[in-house]
Amino acid sequence: MTPAQHTLGAIAERFGLELRGDPALRVDGVDTLANAGATRITFLANPRYRGQLAGVGAAAVVLRAADADACPRACLVASDPYVAFAKIAALFERAPAAQPGVHPSAIVAAGAQVAAGASVGPYCVIEDGAVVEDGAVLGPHCVVGRDCRVGAQSRLVARVTLVQDVRLGKRVLVHPGAVLGADGFGLAFERDHWIKVPQLGGVVVGDDCEIGANTTIDRGALGDTVLEDDVRLDNQIQIAHNVRIGAHSALAGCAAVAGSATIGRYCLVGGGAGILGHLTLADRVTVTAMSLVTHSIREPGEYSSGTPIQPNRQWRRNAARFKHLDEIARRVGAAPKEPES
Amino acid sequence: MTPAQHTLGAIAERFGLELRGDPALRVDGVDTLANAGATRITFLANPRYRGQLAGVGAAAVVLRAADADACPRACLVASDPYVAFAKIAALFERAPAAQPGVHPSAIVAAGAQVAAGASVGPYCVIEDGAVVEDGAVLGPHCVVGRDCRVGAQSRLVARVTLVQDVRLGKRVLVHPGAVLGADGFGLAFERDHWIKVPQLGGVVVGDDCEIGANTTIDRGALGDTVLEDDVRLDNQIQIAHNVRIGAHSALAGCAAVAGSATIGRYCLVGGGAGILGHLTLADRVTVTAMSLVTHSIREPGEYSSGTPIQPNRQWRRNAARFKHLDEIARRVGAAPKEPES
Amino acid sequence: MTPAQHTLGAIAERFGLELRGDPALRVDGVDTLANAGATRITFLANPRYRGQLAGVGAAAVVLRAADADACPRACLVASDPYVAFAKIAALFERAPAAQPGVHPSAIVAAGAQVAAGASVGPYCVIEDGAVVEDGAVLGPHCVVGRDCRVGAQSRLVARVTLVQDVRLGKRVLVHPGAVLGADGFGLAFERDHWIKVPQLGGVVVGDDCEIGANTTIDRGALGDTVLEDDVRLDNQIQIAHNVRIGAHSALAGCAAVAGSATIGRYCLVGGGAGILGHLTLADRVTVTAMSLVTHSIREPGEYSSGTPIQPNRQWRRNAARFKHLDEIARRVGAAPKEPES
């Protein structure tokens, strides 16, 4: 496949960027500041990498106006170079070769509907009541269970399982190994053993969401588990039953949200962070990596828990003291505190 | 499929509940306190939701006697409303349509045994020496590896992998993406590189266990990794080689147990909690979410580690001080402490 | 299959161990110190289990010279008993029955190359441009995506997904559910919504690596995500885009490394530990379980964060005080500290 080619002038015009350099220069791809060769576009967004600008070999650099003078190559000036670069890079993406049609090895139940413009890959299994809308692409080994819906232009990359009653919006992208619609963890303890609480709800995913590899989103116990539009989940995230995540929120890898928690819009949850059940997070709350949220957060802002990384020897001495911190505080005459719940 | 219908009187009698209301009233499902309509049963167990009782629209509410007077609809009085509700909800579950028999696309080795009453779904692969007992149900894309056993009435929902020497008891429920019987992480370091320690044991899972989506349970290095009866594992849990988990224990999402740890009976492990290797937890130990257990626990009770969530600005000041906590403690004349191991 | 049999004398000679006992004694397997019967070899490496030595029933025990006198059975004396045992145990491993050839149900694209000596299991899907080298073994349900390479003698146990542009070295072992080459989590925020940053790089895995069940390794955004030779990853590990992990490093279950972090050689990362993005860890850094690394580490050594596990009641009092630790420190006249970043 011949790589796509574009001129700098065409790119600048398309994305409304100021070009400082030769508009006729042709480029055929993107690369990092350190590696980009003479036919590639690169970018500078993170100031951490500014030192690499002097030695850049790229055809052009997407950057802020303030950095343009220090750039020895053509510049594409953007107020947000990362956003501009994302759009430019998309020009050079090799499209997944998805031909419309159902692979002969796929098993589609009589009661399922697959749009003529959808693409269903090898060994997919589509069960009764399922709907695959136009332009949707299912890679190999996907399961679309009973009464699930894959919205138009959505893509299940490979080996995605939608168990039951999972409805995806449009342009949803789901990476391999994700499981949506498994039973929530509902247990009632009777005398000396557990009883399973039936999980009868579904999962609703809005438009333009992305769901990472091996991420799990459980079906609701009664109502649905909900991701509003443009929610972005990284890999290995766990979303328990009846969670609701507001539009435009993003969760980094290995974050976990316990049952019936509600996360606002435009929230950011760091990697490995946890949010306990039945809590509410306001809009625009940021939780830093590996923090544990144990109570609702009503105010936007950034929240953290944990202790800093230290050489183990120092850490051990400090950690031993933490076990007696209340006593230490009382010694210095600090006022009594409500114990943490 | 017409929904099941039951009268309140029949339900009260079946589960031994006191009914306050019309025994002839027919119901056709269950729902939340907030959403249940006039033909649905709901429940009130968590006091957090008591405020919703006045406006309830359900046919009947399962609740404690103390809440009955405040309920404007029929009441089903239970000492444990959540247990009673779990049983009632099961009446309305849509049964998975599992016909006995082996799907023509499934590959069953000559040396495997599949009971006539078992159901094996599309694209399953069952290897030599494997046994699938009567009433077991395998959804699509399951692999039952060499010398594995799926006990009677057990269910592998979809895309479950039993690698080798995995024996499941009766009525075990395994959700999609779970991997049982992969090699434990056994490494020996020789001079300048790793040597793999062969993993030769299996996995034994007792009756009535539930194993969540994308959970992993490794085979033992020599002996087996063991889950006793009625162990309940949520999603994305990691159980390392030669762990033993006592009957009726439950672990929430993303918990992890390192090699050769032994967890007692009736333990509760919170989401994201970790238990280091070779430790022992007594019966009835509770570990709160995201705590790390670094030594054996001999007494029942609740255990925690970590620090509270705070606005990041305050947290940063406190966290910086944690690095010098030993010095602070010495300043106030606290007795020296054994460093944490 | 008749189990392999070896004499103690042959084993001692093969691995250069001193034998104290009858060289003609035949053994047919390995087992734990507690369980090994009279035809089995066992080992003593962890002093924790020394008390079991007196009652050992094994044919022979692999142990250090210092423990030999206390052993009532034959001894195989080794400077590192665990390494020696690992090699001995490998003699008794039941080999996976992998016949060369492509299972008739596997779908191999016309533009893919599968070596004659490779084994491709049922329902595998191998896409255009993929290469499977000689002696490689693919269990059931593996996907080898476009332009991926599975090096000679590598093994994908079952249901492994290589999405695109993933190149595995020789003798790489990948456990079920692992996903390599999914898109990294690249997002740019434009005004009020997310834009996906195209992920165009690949994944490069060196020789002799092991990758655990349900582990995820994302493709690079531009350059590649790299594991050097002999890197060992346990289950459910998350490796983000453009991470680089140095040779001979090992990460325990549920560890996570954020984007563009660089980990040195011979590093050890404990279970559930996290490493933030764009950081660098020197060679021979050890991070203990569930610690979070928030800044680069330039010196070898062991590093930790977190607080010790305690009974919840005591923990709550101490945790409440942590929220005011800066104030406590100021009361005792400790010098002001730079807030933790």
Instruction: Please give the radius of gyration of chain A in angstroms.
Output: 25 Å
Residue windows where pLDDT falls under 50 for at least 5 positions of chain A:
none
The CATH class assignment of the largest domain in chain A is: Mainly Beta
What is the average of the pLDDT values of chain A? 95
Q: Tell me the structural class of chain A.
A: mainly beta
Q: What proportion of the residues of chain A form beta strands (DSSP E)?
A: 25-35%
The CATH architecture name of the largest domain in chain A reads 3 Solenoid
**CATH structural fold name of the largest domain in chain A:** UDP N-Acetylglucosamine Acyltransferase, domain 1
The greatest inter-chain interface is formed by: A-B, 80 and 78 residues
Major sheet details of chain A: 11 strands, parallel
- Oligomer category: homotrimer
Let me know the number of strands of chain A: 40
Q: Strand arrangement, largest sheet of chain A?
A: 8-11-14-17-20-25-28-31-34-37-39
Overall structural domain count of chain A? 2
Q: State the helicity of chain A in percent bands.
A: 10-25%
Relevant CATH superfamily of the largest domain in chain A: Hexapeptide repeat proteins
Query: Per the principal axes of the C-alpha atoms, what is the gross shape of chain A?
Result: flat
Distance between the termini of chain A: 60 Å
Count every helix of chain A, treating DSSP H or I runs of 4 or more residues as helices: 5
